[in-house]
Amino acid sequence: MDKFTTLTGIAAPMPLVNIDTDMIIPKQFLKTIHRSGLGKNLFDEMRYDAQGGENPDFILNQPAYRESRIIVAGDNFGCGSSREHAPWALLDFGIRAVISTSFADIFYNNCFKNGILPIVMPQEVVDVLMEDARKGANARITVDLENQTVTTSDGQSFPFEIDPFRKHCLLNGLDDIGLTMEKAASIDAFEQQAAQSRPWV
Amino acid sequence: MTGNNNAGAPRTLYDKIFDAHVVDRQEDGTCILYIDRHLVHEVTSPQAFEGLRMAGRKVRRPDQTIAVPDHNVPTTPDRVNGIENPEGRIQVAELDKNAREFGLNYYPMNDIRQGIVHIVGPEQGWTLPGMTVVCGDSHTATHGAFGALAHGIGTSEVEHVLATQTLIQKKSKNMKVEITGSLRPGVTAKDITLAVIGKTGTAGGTGYVIEYCGQAIRELSMEGRMTVCNMAIEGGARAGLIAPDDKTFAYCQGRPHAPKGAAWEAAVQWWKTLFSDEGAHWDKVVTIAGEDIAPVVTWGTSPEDVLPITGTVPSPDDFEGGKVEAARRSLDYMGLTPGTPLNRIKVDAVFIGSCTNGRIEDLRAAAAILRGRKLADGVRGMVVPGSGLVRMQAEEEGLDKIFTDAGFEWRLAGCSMCLGMNPDQLAPGERCAATSNRNFEGRMGRGGRTHLMSPVMAAAAGITGHLTDVRELMTETV
């Protein structure tokens, strides 16, 4: 997993609430057996018409936002299915941070496994960032994970909260599985005890 | 693991199951949680197995890992000849290869026990009270009906569980949803779960594990309880739980992977300690009177867009904040005009099935409405049993005959139209009365319009050709 330290980039405003994982990556693209290559189908049914032509109104098709690295989104971003194809598609497109008032639980977890930083901010801050994002390519938002701040193009800075363990893993690009395997002795001990206390499992 | 679940401070059912599975706890509360059962399907697992191979890792507990293809499988009889779609075929073949190579418990596509993973798990006795159960699928919440802590995970976490049989977790908050009293005739488990989401919203459960309780929940069958817990995720909750009772034990007893003899007795003794203690702390409580719940349908493209069938299509102006624009977009997508009575909305298709409502009781309930009746002209109907065994049971009871006489197609088991990853899909603009769980844009096929409802409500819509209050069609047979 790539490390996440700081990121300065174009932010796409997507104020719609409840942007679900079926919107982020529709089911027909879940048939892949690989993690890569999903960026071209990110938001597919919003981004392209039925014939595959680009929908010029969709934010990521507009010239100013084609190189977006951040999304500022409406409430409850990523609700719906557990598909990790959603963060894979975001990452493959180039999105490394999403800012919203709230995220669906599984999507939120999945982001951290892929080097994407989901940032929860109060409504009034999301409103400010949304306005900044609307300024287009000349307005770049900066995310600083170490210092836990988001800074607008005109220098307004806002702090955010993040779980310390998740921050540590993201800053260092750490592999969860490797970390857990270091606790193999504890897992062995748990299994031995469980075999006694819940032998029916 | 604690032998006595009732020692110490009062705890919720969730607290008890969580505590019993903690392998390691860091100071900040981050835990390594042991996973008893890991269910695997073909869509969210190939990259996880690939990751294992690349790192030279093994599956730690193949004996506790259960694999079944469901999302991609066609539901027509010709599937015995293989899957036509090349990508779907490859995904199912990958699962087959991985299941055999790593020695997993495996139900291949043409095995009679194959079906939707959340129907197969309980049916085969893999799902038992007090367990932790995960699957790379958000509807894993279904298994909470047994008093098991069950939730969906992403593919990286699938790989983590395959390699370590654990997950890294922080504890969620506790939410109690109590449904008091009894349901009225024509009102089902599906109406309960939709009514709860209608009240709390799709983000209302975010950060929580929900325990459903109250008389109306106790009165539900195990099938009904699975329907309720299945949609906990649509309310944003990590998991839904129902405390096990004699109905739960009766359902589990004798299943192929349930304990037998003395082990069964010991298990039941432990399971009987699985309830929320008097005085346990709840971070949020929602109470709904069972008598107040009407048969409901969804009108929009979020499961929170729920109204009683007696209602009318709302206007965007009825909402506040970001929901105004979302409602406008939903109405446009759904092709609906504010003020239209819901029971005048015409349907083109009826889908009965899915992990929400593809169990035997669901088919019996729909068949009871359809007996001696037919689909309205121009309406197509499809019934997709949740597993091969549900299908067989339904055929033994003659339900298939009722469905086909009414004009429905009687299919083989799979996820089918619920997510349209297989050939079963809606056409653009086609409107469907569906017993599934998500009415998202494009979920059942690009441009397809989904109204979520119970099996009896879907059957009623099929008969009249428009959304219908099933109570108008009910006879003493229901």
Task: Give the SSE layout.
The complex is a heterodimer of chains A (201) and B (478).
Chain A: E1 6-14, H1 21-24, H2 44-47, E2 70-73, H3 85-93, E3 97-100, H4 105-112, E4 117-120, H5 123-133, E5 140-144, E6 149-151, E7 157-159, H6 164-172, H7 176-181, H8 184-197
Parallel strand pairs in A: 1-2, 2-3, 3-4
Antiparallel strand pairs in A: 1-5, 5-6, 6-7
Chain B: H1 13-19, E1 22-25, E2 31-34, E3 37-40, H2 46-55, E4 65-67, H3 86-102, E5 105-106, H4 117-123, E6 132-135, E7 149-152, H5 155-164, E8 166-169, E9 173-180, H6 189-200, E10 208-213, H7 215-218, H8 222-230, E11 239-241, H9 246-252, H10 261-271, E12 284-289, E13 296-298, E14 306-308, H11 322-334, E15 349-352, H12 354-357, H13 360-370, E16 380-383, H14 388-396, H15 399-406, E17 408-410, E18 431-434, E19 449-452, H16 455-464
Parallel strand pairs in B: 3-4, 3-6, 4-5, 6-7, 9-10, 9-12, 10-11, 15-16, 15-18, 16-17, 18-19
Antiparallel strand pairs in B: 1-2, 2-8, 13-14
Helix pairs in contact in B: 2-5, 6-8, 13-15, 13-16
3D architecture notes:
The complex is a heterodimer of chains A (201) and B (478). With 201 residues, chain A is an alpha/beta fold. Helices cover 32% and strands 16% of the residues of chain A. Chain A is built from eight helices and seven strands, in the order E-H-H-E-H-E-H-E-H-E-E-E-H-H-H. Chain A has helices at residues 21-24, 44-47, 85-93, 105-112, 123-133, 164-172, 176-181, 184-197; strands spanning 6-14, 70-73, 97-100, 117-120, 140-144, 149-151, 157-159. In chain A, strands 4-3-2-1-5-6-7 form a seven-stranded mixed beta sheet. The model of chain A has no long low-confidence stretch (mean pLDDT 96). With 478 residues, chain B is of the alpha/beta class. Helices cover 31% and strands 16% of the residues of chain B. Chain B has helices at 13-19, 46-55, 86-102, 117-123, 155-164, 189-200, 215-218, 222-230, 246-252, 261-271, 322-334, 354-357, 360-370, 388-396, 399-406, 455-464, and strands at 22-25, 31-34, 37-40, 65-67, 105-106, 132-135, 149-152, 166-169, 173-180, 208-213, 239-241, 284-289, 296-298, 306-308, 349-352, 380-383, 408-410, 431-434, 449-452. In chain B, the strands form five sheets. Chain B has a five-stranded parallel beta sheet with strand order 5-4-3-6-7, sandwiched between helices. In chain B, strands 17-16-15-18-19 form a five-stranded parallel beta sheet. Chain B is globular and about 55 Å long. The interface between A and B is large, with 58 and 83 residues.
